[in-house]
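QUALITY CONTROL LOG
STEP: pairwise intake check
CHECKER ROLE: data steward
CRITERIA: each record must contain a sequence immediately followed by its structure tokens, with no blank fields

ENTRY 1 OF 2
RESULT FIELD BELOW
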Amino acid sequence: MRGRLTHAQLKVMSAIEACRTAELGGYVARCANPACGHTTIAYCSCRNRHCPRCQGSQARAWLEARKAELLQVPYFHVVFTLPPRVAAIAYQNKAVIYDLLFKASAETLLTIAADPKRLGVKIGFTSVLHTWGSAMTHHPHVHMIVPGGGISLDGTRWIGSTEDFLLPVPVLTRMFRGKMLAMLKAAHAEGRLEFFGPHAALADKAAFKSYLEPLYDTQWHVYAKRPFAGPEQVLAYLARYTHRVAISNKRLIGMDEKGVTFTYKDYRIEGPDRYKTMTLEPGEFIRRFMLHVLPKGFHRIRHYGLLARSPTKAETLARARELIAAAAPPKPPHTKQEPTDGGDAKVETPAHPCPCCGAPMVIIETFEAGMTPRHRPSAPATAIRIDTS
């Protein structure tokens, strides 16, 4: 199988194999309570963005930065999906076609929202690329988290959407399809697409045009979910989606020489019966996981419109909050109850508490990759994790 993997995929495999092992070095931590003295070893994380173990701390740091951008309005969840015919050639052209997926979906949302016959506003949103289905098959799509409304085109007021409706999905679908197909043809004409194996003939302009032609008459999938209950729910949702990889450790049920068994969701079925298990031969499991390794430097999380990265982003969000406050009905004053001198004080929990007594754990030694620490643990090394990210 090694001969079939790209250099990027081999690097991902090596990083995951070494993650939180002595190969990457680590720390020795000891309880600050002298009466306890519990000692443990924590190995360094690989911090690879495809590693299931390393996404938790990265997601938390990213979410902290996003808190300052939340607006006090309903949020919607919109999904744009590439049809299988395009997904098939996207795998051979990840950097180009995934980028076009971002652009086509973003331009569609920005254009329709700015249409005076729709909302007639400048909106902002965050897009997150996922390339997998629940069974780890290749299924490229973008999830968008969209505030319910935007700043009017003249910049004087905030115009909100209705409580359960953002923009018409059929209109979004038609424009997305047209933009994506036009961008694919342009990329082909510019020589930016490559084709191998069964798709090698698509290098010819006429063959490529014929390949795309049926897609003008097929149904493309654009999905808009109900709005979230509030900004806190948005953050909770983002925590699950932004730094997700093709499969998480909690979905793994078992593995042996015969295969790897994991849970997956069959979206064709409603209700509890949609949750099923699947066993794949080890080589096939690794192949499916490696399908979703992104090109080096490719950004899978992007911000658009009011949320686009720019020198004036902070001012734009401040202006949006002013307009939202002006458009919202006044709320009754809320008096925060201050604790009295005799009240219970809040006890701060240590960032890394001792699993035995709860006192803080203190790093007493660091050791380089491949080295053996001088101190020995008084419990298994997995008793505590020191976050090195």
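ENTRY 2 OF 2
RESULT FIELD BELOW
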Amino acid sequence: MVGEMTLLSGSSNRALAEGIANALGTRVASANVGRFSDGETRVEIHENVRGRDVFLIQSTSAPSNDHLMELLIMADACRRASAGRITAVIPYFGYARQDRKVQSRAPITARLVADLLEASGVDRVLTMDLHAGQIQGFFRIPVDNLHAQPLLLEEMGRALSANDAVIVSPDAGGVERARSYAAHLGATLAVIDKRRSKPNESEVMHLIGDVEGRDACIVDDMIDTAGTLAKGGAAVANHAAKRVIAAATHPVLSGPAVSRIEASVFERVLVTDTIPLGEAAAACSKIQVISVAPLFARAIRAIHQNDSIRRLFLEEGA
């Protein structure tokens, strides 16, 4: 049996770590995560973790390499300090889109990250809405993949008309996700058929499904440059949708994403706090943030008490 719980946080998402701690009725343990003068990552844990059940909370969002190194070094520090068990809580799992070889001599970086986490001493991973579910199979340790869907559904239910809502998948790959949202909301389903010309750019071709006169919501797992999202929203609006909103778990929001959302047809874009918003995104009136801290807190409590995570999924309707 491992000992009492200890929460530690890297620098990527301290606000979420504090939210999780508050929901658990505890605090984030004292640690110093910074840089040496030459840029190397420096970690000092100021509290005893010997025999304790340690949860390292760190999204590997931009700058991904820095945040990943922080997580690896924190795990190594805890392992060398004789922690009883180390769980990496990674609300946003960076490099998840590099999950397969797309051309000759290409790496599978998501698998490399899994190997690095295991080598650093991590015993378990807790994450949310992996871009590719098969990444769980890259690990030889347990991986729990939570879903933000219950939290997003609650807000979507308030935003969409109960009688004429339609859930839109931005591409063929997201149909299963969109179908699940539609089933929970009692909505119909539509799919945007697009052709991707190069990475981070896409061309909307046509819409499959009826959105005319309806409240439409485009759902995805993440918003990166928002090019796909903005073009998808325009396509839905051009097919005479009454209102258009969007929902996604991870607000990566790189490059021109915020300006594209500002100029888009969306009334609202629902995201979670797996990644903290930058200054421009936080000031955008169209972006609404829903906290995943309560859901992570419940999962952490279940892991600590050796309770069933599956029961948590069933209760949340995921």
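INTAKE CHECK: passed for both entries
DESCRIPTIVE NOTE, ENTRY 2: The chain has two domains: 5-147+293-316, 149-290.
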